[in-house]
């Protein structure tokens, strides 16, 4: 995973005035041009360009990794480190999608999707283990791993620094997601068939309606003080999941608790309707209002990492999800809100217009509060289905 830094190394030139001679500059936000340029750099310069600070793509040597390190107390402890790591194969990477390289990259989300046919990881390990007085060991050895059909999704957070009246992009946080190739086409097809056929629910299958999902209240802002604001969304209902398509599904194997479960959905349009309470006091304006809101999310891509365990009932296995961590990408957010400033309807319209004009900046601020709350509603829906259906009965028996 640390080889992702190689991609960031290329991106450092997105806002630089100096590029290799064979690479033409792109317009801001021209995603296709930027994608092609990154791929050209990888293809033309697999050994890197030292004079431009582009490192080799063929090998990357990350720092030593502390894989396991339990406290060395009591009768049982283990430590394991990976040393002298070498990751190879990024010279064959292909960037498939790029977004967010606008004139002001601080105000957008930068996402990059990369496919790598084959990655290899070589290292040595050092392990110390004690188990009561029965086993005590201090060993070293070689490690080797191969990863095939690798898909990397990178989310970058950046700042622009100024030097000699020029702007330079600096990546300060990179959040990767790794997917390894697998054939889950049958399960994806059946999941999409269930959504399409039973969007309004089916009690016999334990499927609750997907066309209207009740969600918990959300505290968007709660900032007490002399100048304060408290904004809460209540009685929310989410519409649109009945039109979802499963685009990726992984981890639902014979022993699902041992692997990584992941689901990706595409939803053309999600609507969230509900009420709000707003209490605010500032230097010029005070308000205490309630009203209705509608959030219209367009072209939604929802990716969820899932943690689950198997519980046994009546000699059958049932899947239980205890954690669902979603990431959400949207093309547009349109907010409708009434009566925010009940004394001044023009001010209400102005505020809503500003939010919709600068929707991405506002969404980046409120997303951390909204998405986790709605993920609990999704988790509850999925768990009700798995609670009503034995996990093994969802699959064909072994031949």
From TrEMBL:
InterPro entries reported in the protein's UniProt record: Haemolymph_juvenile_hormone-bd, To_sf
Which Pfam families does this chain map to?
JHBP (PF06585)
Q: Keyword Signal: yes or no? A: yes
Keywords, in A-Z order: Signal
Recorded GO cellular component terms are: extracellular space
Keyword Cell membrane in record: no
* Residues in the signal sequence: 1-16
Superkingdom in the source lineage: Eukaryota
Q: PANTHER family, from UniProt?
A: CIRCADIAN CLOCK-CONTROLLED PROTEIN DAYWAKE-RELATED, PROTEIN TAKEOUT-LIKE PROTEIN
Descriptive protein name: Maker149
Organism (species):
Drosophila busckii
């Amino acid at each position: 995973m640390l080889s992702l830094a190689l991609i960031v190394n290329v991106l450092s030139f997105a806002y630089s005035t100096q590029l290799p001679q064979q690479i033409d500059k792109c317009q801001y936000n021209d995603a296709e041009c930027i994608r092609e340029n990154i791929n050209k750099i990888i293809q033309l310069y697999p050994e890197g360009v030292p004079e431009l600070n582009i490192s080799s793509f063929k090998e990357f040597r990350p720092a030593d990794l502390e894989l396991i390190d339990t406290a060395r107390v009591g009768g049982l402890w283990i430590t394991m480190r990976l040393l002298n790591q070498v990751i190879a194969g990024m010279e064959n990477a292909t960037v498939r999608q790029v977004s967010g390289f606008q004139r002001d990259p601080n105000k957008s989300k930068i996402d990059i999707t990369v496919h790598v046919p084959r990655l290899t990881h070589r290292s040595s390990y050092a392990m110390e283990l004690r188990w009561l007085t029965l086993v005590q060991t201090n060993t070293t050895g070689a490690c080797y791993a191969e990863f095939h059909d690798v898909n990397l999704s990178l989310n970058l957070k950046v700042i622009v620094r100024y030097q000699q009246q020029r702007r330079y992009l600096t990546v300060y946080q990179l959040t990767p997601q790794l997917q390894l190739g697998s054939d889950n086409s049958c399960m994806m097809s059946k999941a999409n068939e269930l959504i399409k056929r039973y969007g309004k629910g089916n009690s016999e299958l334990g499927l609750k309606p997907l066309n209207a999902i009740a969600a918990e209240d959300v505290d968007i802002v709660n900032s007490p003080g002399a100048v304060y604001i408290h904004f809460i969304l209540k009685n929310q209902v989410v519409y649109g999941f009945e039109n979802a398509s499963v685009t990726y599904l992984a981890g639902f194997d014979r022993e699902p608790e041992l692997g990584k479960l992941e689901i990706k959905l595409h939803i053309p349009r999600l609507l969230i309707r509900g009420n709000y309470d707003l209490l605010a006091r500032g230097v010029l304006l005070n308000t205490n209002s309630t009203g209705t809101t509608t959030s219209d999310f367009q072209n939604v891509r929802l990716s969820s990492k899932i943690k689950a365990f198997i519980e046994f009932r009546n000699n059958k296995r049932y899947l239980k999800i205890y954690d669902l961590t979603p990431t959400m990408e949207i093309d547009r957010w349109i907010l409708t809100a009434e009566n925010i400033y009940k004394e001044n309807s023009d001010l209400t319209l102005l505020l809503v217009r500003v939010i919709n004009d600068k929707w991405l900046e506002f969404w980046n601020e409120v997303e951390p509060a909204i998405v986790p709350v709605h993920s609990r509603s999704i988790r509850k829906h999925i768990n009700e289905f798995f609670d009503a259906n034995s996990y093994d009965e969802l699959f064909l028996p072994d031949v």
